[in-house]
């Protein structure tokens, strides 16, 4: 008896030992490359120099080569299949590595085809210009017409121009979808959508369930919102609500709320230094970011990346953000958002193994960033941070809160279109996708399809090419941000409602997040982390409670 269990124990130890050896060799190999790649990315983004981008490409390729190794993948698969890695931290690293290799096991010839098609489509996107009455227009022309023009036929022309690139790229895009599916099948998956979810530790069944619940809970509130919105919009065009068409909604995909319920918050923020506000705010909840800001690149400069991101350069505390700050609401939100990513990286438990010193999932770090980013429009937060006069406070409370709620509900309906469309696109790329697209839009967004033959306008959404099977994560991020909000209000601050919650100057907020979300980093599966942090797995009801009064 004793003898047998010793043997059993030894065998397990052997497998764990073998895997540990593999791990230490692997980390020794990739850690310096990841750090170099971060440095290269940083210098490319801050300088805009061509040679920096070239250097970045070379290092990324070198990293990809490591994860392409088929023998190492086979070894990891074998270790996984034996089920003998019992130590939780080792098992988690095995899981993580397995998925990193899996992602890169596409056969080289197919991988070549994917890369070149991808580049070909990107080039068409970048060089294509839509036309109105035969005249070429830019995206800002289209944006201006869709947000200001009152003549319906001009609007329709602009809306159609925004979709024209769809017909230009759809052939290549469908070819790309078929190649991606072929690659997924070679790896033993039904299609590329299911493979992508597996790589992201998600599956169709759980996502279907989340979106089904969310659909049910938002259907009626969205119908009411849409009715109110249609009433306002119809008036501005001198139409009846029944005459409104998709080009009457300001945004080509109706993913953003038309500019009719908006309050200008820039007028308030222009008197402040948004960087200083963010610094003081994070210090007040005891998640200080002074060191992060000190090594960051915050202001606009020629050649610099015009967007914003947060970067963990070495997983040892060298965290920084890139922004192009201006004192307005958009950059207030953005700097709070990016610093949310930054604290997630900065406050991981430092004795975790290297491979686990990252967020549990890209959507969990997005959720923390959203949680903080939302504060730029929160009346209570603004009152406390900016010493707002009472009249401003009341106005913001009424107008801005409504805007936020509407925008969130509206976005959730659009996210449903994207999720269901992409799922079916990969399940059957040969079906009538143009009709499917409009079926989904009618069903979830309550818009009417245009008369006449349908075109491939859907293919003008760049995400299908550049971030395939990823869009649902934006929605999951919003859901988790609300779930954390609920947990903090009720479990941490022990309040009955979130009515006057601005999260200002309360260290309990920072301490809760740090302990339950940031410190564990990638130690647990994302849903296990959420369960430990909030008492239950990812749920839709907190988003619904927060945004549907
Ligand atoms: Zn983000």
Structure report:
The chain is mostly helical. It has a domain at 2-105. 66% of the residues lie in helices and 2% in strands. The chain contains 22 helices and four strands. It has helices at 2-47, 50-68, 70-82, 88-103, 108-127, 139-148, 152-186, 192-199, 204-236, 266-269, 274-284, 290-294, 329-346, 362-373, 379-386, 390-427, 433-445, 463-466, 472-492, 507-518, 526-534, 541-547; strands at 131-132, 135-136, 309-312, 319-322. The strands form two sheets. The protein has a two-stranded antiparallel sheet. A hairpin with a 2-residue loop joins β1 and β2 (135-136). α16 packs antiparallel against α17 (433-445) and α16 (390-427) packs across α19 (472-492). The longest helix is centred in the N-terminal third of the chain and has 46 residues, at 2-47. The protein is globular and about 75 Å long. The protein starts with a helix and ends with a helix. The relative contact order is 0.10. Mean pLDDT is 94; it is low at 1-10. Bound molecules: zinc ion (ZN). Zinc ion binds at residues 337, 341, 366, 369.
């Amino acid at each position: 008896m004793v003898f047998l269990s010793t043997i059993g124990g030894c065998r397990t130890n052997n497998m764990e030992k073998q895997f540990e050896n593999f791990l230490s060799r692997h980390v020794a190999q990739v850690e310096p490359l990841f750090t170099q790649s971060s440095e290269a990315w940083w210098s490319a983004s801050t300088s805009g120099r061509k040679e920096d981008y070239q250097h970045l490409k070379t290092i990324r390729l070198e990293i990809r080569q490591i994860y392409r190794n088929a023998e190492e993948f086979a070894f990891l698969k074998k270790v996984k299949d034996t089920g003998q890695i019992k130590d939780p931290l080792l098992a988690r690293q095995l899981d993580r590595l397995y998925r990193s290799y899996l992602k890169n096991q596409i056969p080289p010839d197919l991988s070549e085809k994917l890369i070149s098609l991808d580049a070909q489509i990107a080039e068409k996107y970048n060089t294509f210009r839509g036309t109105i009455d035969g005249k070429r227009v830019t995206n800002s022309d289209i944006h201006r017409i869709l947000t200001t023009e009152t003549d319906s036929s001009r609007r329709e022309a602009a809306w159609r121009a925004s979709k024209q690139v769809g017909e230009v790229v759809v052939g290549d895009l469908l070819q790309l979808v078929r190649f991606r599916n072929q690659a997924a099948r070679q790896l033993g998956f039904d299609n590329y959508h299911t493979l992508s979810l597996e790589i992201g530790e998600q599956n169709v069944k759980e996502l279907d369930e989340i979106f089904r619940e969310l659909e049910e809970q938002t259907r009626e509130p969205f119908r009411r919102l849409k009715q109110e919105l249609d009433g306002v919009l119809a008036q501005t065009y001198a139409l009846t609500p029944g005459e409104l068409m998709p080009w009457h909604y300001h945004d080509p995909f109706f993913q953003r709320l038309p500019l009719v319920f908006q309050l200008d918050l820039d007028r308030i923020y222009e008197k402040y230094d948004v960087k200083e506000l963010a610094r003081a705010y994070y210090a007040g909840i005891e998640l200080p970011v002074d060191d992060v800001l000190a090594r960051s690149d915050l202001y606009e400069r020629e050649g610099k990346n015009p967007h914003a991101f947060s970067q963990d350069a070495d997983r040892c505390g060298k965290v920084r953000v890139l922004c192009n700050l201006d004192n307005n609401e958009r950059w207030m939100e953005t700097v709070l958002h990016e610093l949310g990513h930054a604290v997630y990286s900065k406050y991981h438990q430092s004795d975790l193994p290297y491979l686990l010193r990252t967020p549990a999932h890209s959507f969990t770090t997005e959720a923390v960033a959203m949680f903080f980013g939302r504060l730029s429009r929160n009346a209570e937060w603004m009152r406390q941070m900016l010493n707002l006069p009472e009249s401003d406070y009341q106005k913001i409370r009424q107008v801005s809160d409504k805007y936020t709620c509407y925008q969130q509900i509206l976005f959730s309906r659009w996210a449903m279109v994207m999720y269901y469309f992409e799922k079916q696109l990969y399940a059957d790329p040969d079906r009538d996708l143009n009709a499917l697209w409009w079926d989904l839009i009618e069903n979830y967004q309550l818009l009417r399809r245009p008369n006449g033959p349908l075109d491939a306008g859907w293919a003008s959404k760049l995400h299908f090419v550049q971030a395939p099977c990823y869009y649902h994560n934006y929605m999951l991020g919003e859901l988790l941000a609300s779930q954390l909000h609920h947990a903090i209000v009720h479990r941490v601050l022990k309040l009955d409602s979130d009515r006057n919650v601005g999260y200002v100057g309360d260290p309990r907020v920072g301490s809760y997040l740090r302990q339950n979300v940031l410190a564990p980093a990638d130690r647990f599966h994302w849903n296990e982390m959420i369960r430990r942090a909030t008492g239950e797995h990812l749920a839709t009801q907190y988003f619904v409670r927060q945004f549907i009064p």
